Amino acid sequence: MNPLLDKLHPYPFEKLRALFAGATPPAVAPIRLSIGEPQHDTPRLVKDALTANLDGLSTYPTTLGVEALRESIAGWLQRRFSLKAVNPASQVLPVNGTREALFAFAQCVVDGSKPGALVASPNPFYQIYEGAALLAGAEPAFLNQTSENGFGLDLDELSDAQWARVQLIYVCSPGNPTGRVLSLEDWRTLFELADRHGFVIAADECYSEIYFDEAAPPLGALQAAEQLGRKDFERLVVFHSLSKRSNVPGLRSGFVAGDAAILKKFLLYRTYHGCAMSQSVQLASIAAWNDEAHVLDNRRLYREKFDRLVPLLSPVLGISRPDAGFYLWARTPDDDAAFARALYAATHVTVLPGQYLAREAHGLNPGAGFVRIALVAGVEECVEAANRIVDFCQSFR
């Protein structure tokens, strides 16, 4: 067996099951706010497009995807991020959701034959970044995101010698779990580092369509690159998904876009990897990328949840509205794992301990003392969960 598999950590939800072992919650309806699985209704237009194109199941799909899908994605990128041009033939590649692509990307980009290869990522982080780095033969290098630095990437935590070993950096904006959006100046600094040291940037933007102000959508990486005059999105690849935007996590549909030279190699890798998207799913995805009405309605529901929950939870957990995304990153009055277990046992509400989303780096675990609350359930269910949390916190203190 591949010995690198032994380096993988248990997934956060495995740790959560172990944490809850032996706890007996009350006989009230369970409310699970631990996993970022959208629970709003799947749009009818996506269902109709999927069932109308089931004949596509009778053919082998191509890894490059159908031209119409790549054109719809390129068009969406140009509309959403005000881009001048995106070439659907060379700068767009459909993938089976961001999780699969984020993992595979490191296997393609990292040169494991070079000793000391590093893959940088935020901390807390999406655990796929770490697993992808380890199985590519690299060592993860974590950049702590703390309240003291506004949950930004602390790029100074790595020395010049360490940056010289970085081959790939994962960036998540809007961030999971903090919801922070990188600014244009953040991107400028990151691009300068990439140029100086020659590493590739993988920008995970799967939460980019969950935001609060319709007049101020989150800045995207490709958008920042174009505004800063970077040619051909050099050293940059972005990852997008329909899961959160269109409430279709089971469709497993997304795309990568950016540097054509990198995507050419990634396409070669994926051809051997055997991860082509079903043509039926591709055609349903076209319907989703071409429609914004359902996305506006989706944001309205999330906006209502934040409007109602932030005032309830702020006095007991010190939370504030994030820049974007559907998570609350809440400070706990005690150890976060103990808090999550006690909350579950007392209220049947599930949240995720922050320490499970981070690693100890530079002398601390930046997730410790926080819990992640995913506002993915229906509006009234989220309000019910918040009321239970408030009652619990008042007694817990």
TrEMBL record:
Please provide an example of a Pfam family that matches this protein in its UniProt record: Aminotran_1_2
On the tree of life, the source organism's domain of life is: Bacteria
What cofactors are annotated for this protein? pyridoxal 5'-phosphate
Has UniProt tagged this entry with the keyword Transferase?
Answer: yes
Start and end residues of each Aminotransferase class I/classII large domain? 31-381
Q: Which UniProt keywords apply?
A: Aminotransferase, Transferase
This protein is called Succinyldiaminopimelate transaminase
> Which species is this record about?
Viridibacterium curvum
Q: Which gene encodes it?
A: dapC
